[in-house]
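Researcher: Please predict.
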Amino acid sequence: MTNPDNIVRVRARNGGRASVYEANGWCQAYGSGILEGTGVVQNTVANMTVLVGGSSSKPDVLIAQNPAGYKIALDLVGQQPVTITAPASNSRISAIVAYTDDLALESTEDTVTGSPASCGLIVVNGSSSASPSAPTDTQIRNAITSDGATGSQASYAVIATIRVASNTTSITNALITRNQAGVQSSKIDFATLDIRSGISNITLPAGRWLIVAVANVVTAVEGSFSTEITWLGTAKRFQGYRTSNQNRTQGCFTWATVMDVSASTTYSITTSGDACEIFGRQWWAVKLSN
């Protein structure tokens, strides 16, 4: 199996033994892909290689899935260059895939953390086409089998996909699409999720909140104008020049932040400086923790 410098590891427990099913229950809340870390980026030298993984001190964390839908965590310990080939014609989408063979209850690699001998890191190419598609599950599992594992029982994660044309000579970040492992909506209880919205202002009780606001600011001042729009203590400047034949001049502003609210507080958007009016605004907030 292809695993350069043992970069792919199964999340391990004491003694170097591979994860057992009960150690991966938390993974079931996520879709497969990269949960945290660098993933796949262009090489520091312009060529047809990409860099995969993070570092030995901060491994990338992947969520891999087996054919039955059960998910486990994989680590990318260190960073490795991986070569991407261009198709002979048209374009092609290649997937960077990390996998582990069938999840055993324990490993015989007692001195090696994470059972890297059961893991692999491969490139799986889709079909060349004027409108190419990413490799299918069948194509990926066949490629895993060709790499020496048993694709029909392996757990794998697509870290990223890369679209290349026949004339591509170097891989850039613009060609790379990260496959992010997000929380599955079926695992969120929207009935109990605290979601709030407001128009002119919003009142939030104590807690940790994801807050988003949008404001449309207009002015009828002729000539040069300058004002500041303040939101949660952060000011943005709105300035410009309005000619006499213009009706009004406007600008749209969007803010987003995660903030800890210590006690129930009402927030609003204000302006200062030359005469401006907040023509329209909207607040949204989602409570992240109690």
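Model: The first strand starts at residue 8 and ends at 10.
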